Amino acid sequence: MMRIFILSLVCVAVVLTTVEAQQPEMAAWEANYNAVLSQLQSMGHGYYSEKDWADIDRKVDQLRDNAIRHNDGDSLVKAAVIQAMVLSDMRRRHEEALQELAVARKKVAQMEGVDASMLFVKEAEVEAEAGNPAGVAALITEYKASPYYDPKPYAWSGGSAPGDPLVMARPGATDGNSLPLTMMEKSLTRSESAPGVVFPDAVLTDINGTQFSLSDLRGKVVLVDFFARGWKVWEGDLRQKREAWNRYHDNGFEVVSICLERNSSGLETLGLPWTVVPGAKDLTKPLGIFGESTSYLLDQNGMVIARDLRGQDLAFAVRRALGQ
Question: Domains of the chain by range and CATH?
Answer without folding.
Answer: 9-40+48-114 (no CATH), 203-321 (3.40.30.10)
